[in-house]
Amino acid sequence: AESQLTTDFYSKSCPRFLDIVRDTITNKQITTPTTAAAALRLFFHDCFPNGCDASVLVSSTAFTTAERDSSINLSLPGDGFDVVIRAKTALELACPNTVSCSDVLAVAVRDLLVTVGGPYYEISLGRRDSRVSKSSLLLAGSLPLPSSPISKLVEQFASRGFSVREMVALSGAHTIGFSHCKEFTARVNDTAGYNPRFADALRKACSNYRNDPTISVFNDVMTPNKFDNMYFQNIPKGLGLLESDHGLYSDPRTRPFVELYARDQARFFRDFAGAMQKLSVYGVLTGPRGEIRRRCDAIN
Ligand code: HEM
Ligand SMILES: [Ca+2]
Ligand SMILES: [Ca+2]
């Protein structure tokens, strides 16, 4: 299906497509700077389990619990959904029933990454949206957990055609955004891999998280809002946040790529851009296998 995608898919049917998405994401990112990270994680959680088909955008109904309401997706921030819905609303006025929500999400993420300093890459278009979104179909193990051993993560990426190198490059997404205390606190207490002063600061920041589960910490403590290679420079210094971040440095299969990206940001940007292009065509639907959703939060 991915071979049927083209970069000029909407050039006749919706010539303003790219401009409309760019205007929308620019306004949103300026007013809400957490949007870029929110949308990037949303995209990963759409594509990785069952393909880039906007299945994660659908809301639950009286009859079905949608993917969005499965436990691993409950922490997806609303701003990722919101930026897609805003762009889609503007697009329905300009070119009704033409642009898929999955294409909007893929392009919105690309453009948002550029606004925070990330690399530009071409996005092929013509994805269609899923006609199903069921929490019950999201199998255990369809998304990586921070507590998973590196072998398990390598396996999860390999079964979808991603190399170890691509997995490390994609993990560089944690150069922006934040994580809730419950995702890492248990590990901080045994201090394995953490810089002691960083561990102290994390314990302090999270000391009240059971009463206030919204407390969260930047994934990249040095440049939290900038897309750069700082994530990889942090890890060898014990400044990685999640157990899976530290793990990339302890494992001999992934460590060389952490070191490579830590010293060569251009290399990281090239590999990240390539891996994002690959992720963005993973499991796409084309033609009659999908639909152009009228609203991104509901199957037609
Ligand atoms: C390698 C395995 C990965 C694991 C175990 C993992 C795990 C996590 C966890 C636990 C969080 C914190 C969520 C929260 O507390 O709200 C997080 C945040 C995030 N993840 Fe990952 N992730 C992985 C790979 C990826 C990939 C491949 C991407 C994108 C290409 C990505 C993008 C993000 C972003 C942008 C955030 C910050 C979200 C925000 O600020 O709203 N992650 N990740
Ligand atoms: Ca999906
Ligand atoms: Ca950063």
UniProtKB/TrEMBL annotation:
Gene Ontology annotations for the cellular component aspect, listed alphabetically: extracellular region
Reaction catalysed by this enzyme: 2 a phenolic donor + H2O2 = 2 a phenolic radical donor + 2 H2O
Essential cofactor(s): Ca(2+); heme b
Site (Transition state stabilizer): R41
Keywords per UniProt: Calcium, Disulfide bond, Glycoprotein, Heme, Hydrogen peroxide, Iron, Metal-binding, Oxidoreductase, Peroxidase, Secreted, Signal
GO terms, biological process: hydrogen peroxide catabolic process; response to oxidative stress
Disulfide bond residue pairs: C14-C95, C47-C52, C101-C296, C181-C206
Positions bound to Ca(2+) 2: T175, D220, T223, D228
A GO molecular-function descriptor: metal ion binding
Principal location class: secreted
Entry EC number(s): 1.11.1.7
Binding-site list for substrate: P144
UniProt xrefs under InterPro entries: Haem_peroxidase, Haem_peroxidase_sf, Peroxidase_pln, Peroxidases_AS, Peroxidases_heam-ligand_BS, Secretory_peroxidase
Family listed: Belongs to the peroxidase family. Classical plant (class III) peroxidase subfamily.
Function as written in the Swiss-Prot or TrEMBL entry: Removal of H(2)O(2), oxidation of toxic reductants, biosynthesis and degradation of lignin, suberization, auxin catabolism, response to environmental stresses such as wounding, pathogen attack and oxidative stress. These functions might be dependent on each isozyme/isoform in each plant tissue.
Descriptive protein name: Peroxidase
Organism encoding this protein: Raphanus sativus
